[in-house]
Amino acid sequence: MTDRSITELFFDRDEEALAVCVKQYGRMLRALAVRIIGPNAADEAVNDAYLAAWNSIPPQKPQSMLSYLSMLTRRCAIDILKHDNRKKRGGDVFMLSLEELGECIPADSAEAEFDGALLKESVNGFLGTLSEKTRVVFMQRYFWSMSCSEIAELNGMKTSAVKMQLARTRERLRRHLEEEGFTV
Q1: Backbone angle region of 57, left / alpha / beta, with phi > 0 → left and psi within -120 to 50 → alpha
Q2: How many whole angstroms from its chain centre is CA 81?
Q3: DSSP letter at 59?
Q4: Domains located in the chain, CATH noted
Q5: pLDDT value at position 16?
Q6: Nearest to 118, CA basis, from 130, 106, 100, 128
Q7: Of 21, 130, 13, whose CA–CA distance to 66 is shortest?
Q8: How many Å is the maximal CA-CA distance in the chain?
Q9: What is the spatial distance between Cα 184 and Cα 103, in angstroms, rounded to a whole number?
Q10: What is the pLDDT of residue 165?
């Protein structure tokens, strides 16, 4: 079923929309959640994402249902991870990737929250300047929360090459954001 058809089901408030999403995207969304919070809470994150989609479509009208559901799953998984980390549990790979990005993304503050849309636009612009291979590696690490060894295997690279490429890309991102006026 096409994304447009699924969106129409959501707009019609037809529960079949959720069943189709589970069938078409469930495994990918669960894999994303597992990478962030592990297998025990992954189903909870995915189910929370489906609920968030149900509550946000309409008025939202996503062009790519997979991208939209991935974004929602990631947010829900991060919320669960934050809750769990307050209790000192899990999330090692994801937390490590966040620490790596912490070197080049501005810290949370009221001002940073206000500038969030500008930051998002700037990061998206930066990603558009990267080669496809570099962008894929960056997204696999920082969006899909894959380990460096997984990325290396998927892309026919050595783990050390992946680490070096990510370090160089983070440095380029840091410089890009500083040029755009963000305090890093």
Answers
A1: beta
A2: 13
A3: T
A4: 3-90 (1.10.1740.10), 94-179 (1.10.10.10)
A5: 94
A6: 106
A7: 21
A8: 50
A9: 7
A10: 95
Tell me the pTM. Answer: 0.61
At residue 65, the 3 state secondary structure works out as helix
Contact (Cβ atoms closer than 8 angstroms) between residue 20 and residue 9: yes
DSSP 108: P
Confidence (pLDDT) at 172: 92
Within 10 Å of residue 87's Cβ, how many Cβ atoms? 7
Best CA proximity match to 14, nearest among 45, 60, 58: 58
Structure tokens at 82: 């934050």
Query: In the prediction, which pLDDT does 169 show?
Result: 93
CA nearest 146: which of 177, 127, 157? 157
Provide the pLDDT for residue 141.
87
Judge whether 11 and 56 are in contact, CB under 8 Å.
Answer: no
Question: How far, in Å, CA of 98 to CA of 94, rounded?
Answer: 6
d(CA 113, CA 106): 10
Mean pLDDT in each 10-residue stretch from start to end of the chain (184 residues)?
A: 91 93 93 87 93 91 88 88 62 54 53 56 85 91 85 94 94 85 68
pLDDT of the residue at 161: 95
